[in-house]
Amino acid sequence: MNPFFFSRAQDSRRLYGASFGGKSKRAYLLCGGFAGEFEVFRSHLSHLARRLAASGAAVLRFDYLGYGDSDGEFVDASIDTMCEDTLAAIDVLKAKSGARRVGILGLRLGATVATLVAQGRDDIDRLVLWEPIVKPWDDLYAELRQTLSLQTVLFRDIRVTREQIVENVLAGRPSRVDGYDLNVIDDGFPLSAAFVESAKRVDLLERCGGVNARTLVMHVRKRPGPVPKALQQLADRLANGEVTVAIEPSLPWRHEDFYMTHSPKVFDATLAWLDETAEMRIGA
Amino acid sequence: MSAEPVTFASGKNELSGIVELPAVREPDLAILLVHSGARGRLGSSFQYPWFARRFAELGYPSLRFDPHGVGESSGHIDIMPMRDFYGSISVGRFVADTLAGVEELRRRLRPKRIVLFGTCGGAISSLLAAPRSPHVDGLVLLSPPVLIDSAQQSPLERIPAEYARRYLFALYAKKLLSPTAWRRFLTGKSDLGAISTYARAAFKRKSSNGRKKHPRFNDHFLEAVEAMLARQSRLLFVFGEGDALRWDFQKEFYDVYWKNNPDYERLCQVHYVPGCNHLFTLREWQQQALDVALPFIRSI
């Protein structure tokens, strides 16, 4: 594992990255999820990076702007900046590995970002999308329920509704109550107007048309069950998409009943698919 | 200010971390940000990089790192029930890594004094590691657990009675007069399971045998505090007022060992952050923790 900082295009702020493995024609970029999901799944991605590197691949895991050890604050991040960061990371990975094409493996919002970035590019040959968020705004708006719960614990009441929080964020105003700014999501990550605006613009079902990469959409759940309609539709609309299901004792991007630093079923299925498709060309 | 990625050995594992350096390093004191356990060197809502940058702005260099098997550090942790994992941290899972972090900080920065700073699992790891290193001069412990977590506990046992009473009062007192809340209750839409668990926890019977040590009390916690006091080291405890674990601390540790003990009164401080939860997830709470920690650190 080789940790380092690298620069974003036309920006002095640095991103943190960790590369695994050396020169290789097989190169993979790992994209983390949103906020707390990024924190929890970071161990999983490093575990997978080591497995891929042990098989001879070159791998890069990185922190988005405002995330983890990268420069910036969380409010600096939006889906647009996450896409820019991913593009910068692709260049770094290609330079380090010597590979002409790379695969991108992304979790949740990171999978959404990977899909957006892959549009119209022929140097991204494979995508693995673990539980991609098809409509980020719907998901994030639902996630704001946690900020309501936070208020009931703090104030025994809901002082600012989700609608008011969104309105204030977009207007650049704090949602100030008793010294707290409640423009937060996921228990404490500050929301920015740029993030909300970028999330509202994205609907993967409308924006996956230009993706040529061979793509695996993976639905992860705790018990056997059907694939959600949106993920099936996404796989159907991708030019080279397929969908599968993996079952784990806990959802690996959350701290639930089990502590997990790796996702055996998710990663076994991912590695098997990468092996199966290694020699296949796009469109084959 | 600048940040530099580093790797260092802890036994057979390679740990990954970041050294954060101030532009001007004034005091000869460095801070080891001891991983939060489950979330490694980032902590909840990226609080460890945030703390590190604030410390650097004030002239204090720091090292934050992932313990073995977590984040980017090598090593393996088997999948296990969450509470067993927390329990294993409370009895020393990451103590050797913390000591390796102290040595790495000394090797790189050669500070005269070192303060360990950690939240939850990082706090208990700091406390257990400190007596084993002569180079630790002070501890800032955010939400250290005094009981050992285990998956064998019932939900009822996990909830301190005082916390359950306040929780029920905070959430449900107002709802007693709310027709909507009663409608939800009578139509089975309320979370009856949670209400029942908290109600039973709030009014669970106390032992009739007088004051007995809690069966899950962490003796390592007490031994480590007393060892630090014996060498005149100073400890700052910081809890969120909304954290269930503060009641365990108060009832099982403060009331029994600390209260009326002059050594504790002289060398230990405890501070409660209003409204704050267990992991200090809001920046406002992190700032308040920092405001309390800084005078303490400056006095080391």
Question: What do these coordinates show?
Answer:
Chain A contains 10 helices and 13 strands. Chain A has 2 domains: 2-134 and 205-276, Rossmann fold (3-Layer(aba) Sandwich), CATH 3.40.50.1820; 139-197, no CATH class. The longest helix of chain A is centred in the first third of the chain and has 20 residues, at 35-54. Chain A is of the alpha/beta class and 284 residues long. Chain B has 2 domains: 2-152 and 216-298, Alpha/Beta hydrolase fold, catalytic domain (Rossmann fold, 3-Layer(aba) Sandwich); 155-202, no CATH class. Chain B contains 12 helices and 9 strands. The model of chain B has no long low-confidence stretch (mean pLDDT 91). The A-B interface holds A 1, 3-5, 16, 18, 35-36, 39-40, 42-43, 46, 50, 61, 67-69, 74, 152-154, 156-157, 178-181, 184, 186-190, 249, 255-262, 264 and B 3, 5-7, 14, 16, 18, 38-46, 49, 66, 69-72, 74, 76-77, 79-82, 84-85, 170-171, 173-174, 242, 275, 277, 279, 281-284.
Overall helicity of chain A: 25-40%
Low-confidence segments of chain A, ≥5 residues, pLDDT <50? Answer: none
Biggest interface, residues from each chain: A-B, 44 and 43 residues
What's the CATH superfamily of the largest domain in chain A, by name? Alpha/Beta hydrolase fold, catalytic domain
With strands numbered from the N-terminus, the spatial order across the biggest sheet of chain A is 1-2-4-3-5-6-11-12
Determine the CATH superfamily of the largest domain in chain B.
Answer: Alpha/Beta hydrolase fold, catalytic domain
What is the H/E string of chain B? EEEHEEHHEHEHHHHHEHHEH
Radius of gyration of chain A: 19 Å
Measured distance between first and last alpha carbons of chain B: 23 Å
What structural class should be given to the helix and strand makeup of chain A?
Answer: alpha/beta
